[in-house]
Amino acid sequence: MIPRARSLRARLVVTVLVLFALACVAIGVATTVALDRFLNARQEGEVVSSADRFARAQNGQLPRPPGGQGGPGGEGGGPGGSSFLGPQPPGSVGVVFAPDGPGGTSGTVVGAERLEDDGASTSALPSSDLAELATVAPGDPPRHVELAGGEYQASAQVMNGRIYVLARETGPVSDVLARLVLIEVIVLGGAVLVTGVAAAVLVRREMRPLERVAAVAGRVGQLPLDRGEVHLAARVPDPDPGTEVGQVGTALNRMLDNVEGALAARQDSETRLRRFVADASHELRTPLAAIRGYAELSRRERDPVPPGTAHALTRISSQAERMSALVEDLLLLARLDAGRPLERADVDLTRLVLDAIGDAHVAGPGHRFIPDLPDEPVTVQGDAGRLAQVVANLLTNARTHTPEGTTVTVGLRSGPDGGALLSVRDDGPGIPPEILPRVFERFARGAESRTRAANDTPSTGLGLAIVAAVVSAHGGTVSVDSVPGRTTFTVGLPAGAPVSTTVSVPV
Ligand SMILES: Nc1ncnc2c1ncn2[C@@H]1O[C@H](COP(=O)(O)OP(=O)(O)O)[C@@H](O)[C@H]1O
Ligand SMILES: [Mg+2]
Fold first, then answer.
1. Final residue of a domain: which of 338, 371, 390?
2. Ligand that comes closest to the CA of residue 403
3. Taking CB atoms and a 6 Å cutoff, what residues make up the pocket around ligand 1?
4. pLDDT tens per residue, range 380-420
């Protein structure tokens, strides 16, 4: 797999490779330059001594090779030589000049010869070579010349008034350098390649623990931690505290322990609070019923009571009624919050809607209720009592928060995946815009509902919160769309079994 260009892994491998390749190039260049200098210096020395040998051979200071051919090997030159050149390595070129002008280097060619590669036979030189060699001045350091036979290094000596120029091939030095460069390219190139593969493998292996840490963090990041009971089972397996990555893993594990503890404490206190609200609501039911009963009883008293007392009794009665409704709603919400399992049965929504409309007719004769139902009955799996309450709450709102004469349409459709789509629409004044965004929150209610006079249906601000809680416990969704003259609540219910609100994520 080719790592992504920006991944840490790829960058590490590329960095190592680039550094190593730079080091290889530096080593290669340094070696080549050093060897080049060394070989050149050595060759220059040899050319100088070859020129000296040439001059001395010409002046009879060296024993002539037997038969004018062959001879003792020159230093570094191998066996070979001629009576003209003296002992020289094969390929050597020698020219004797007689200077014609004072101090001039060029002059008449007295003799010239090239020792062939076999080290014995000789040949004449082309005039271009003679002209080139005539430019080599005695006393100068050896220099490069280009002759017909290739690259040469030449040196000149003066002896007995004549100039002896000797040139030797530089081929051997170039060959050695070329071979060195070739070897360097192959060896260092191979080393770069092997290093690249090894670096990729090693970096990958070293990165694996980091990937495990990232995977754990990623899994935890996907857990819904905001509500319900949460088990944070994900942990980095056996982090090695000796390594940096291991320390990150250990720190992450410790953080998860901490978070898990905090979540458990949060869940614990939530549970206790819910139980308290449920218990309190439950405990309040009985005394409230008693208050209502006694108020009712007193109002029916035959003996005349003062008008003030009669009014007080009516207020006591209606406020107790309102408080009962509040307590019932609170109890229901507390139970829904606790994630108490819902009943699961086939619920005929069509029937349920028709019953609710019937009740609404009786409660609000001044409103028009229009069912908009399909011929086929629509059913879902769920808790019939709770779903009836959803429809009742929506219809109550459409009745109590709108003026008489308002038309309320209740629509029901089969959802695309076998679920159901329920809508309650009215052409009333609409939900006040300031509470519309949080209309499903607890105790969110319009100013008008707050100040509403005694009513058959007291306003608690919990009706829509209950709708939202029941629908979400069924795994459904609820939404509202409201403008003056058109308010629509839409409830989507899935066909399947209701889901529990307790969150538990095994990892
Ligand atoms: N159909 C509706 N038309 C106008 N206002 C509505 C409608 N339904 C709900 N509301 C507004 O939303 C508020 C919250 O509704 P709800 O939670 O049922 O509380 P409650 O009905 O007890 O006041 C209501 O007080 C009311 O102001
Ligand atoms: Mg309501």
1. 338
2. 1
3. 393, 397-398, 401-402, 426, 428, 430-432, 435, 439, 444-446, 449, 459-465, 487
4. 999 999 999 999 999 999 999 999 999 999 999 998 788 99
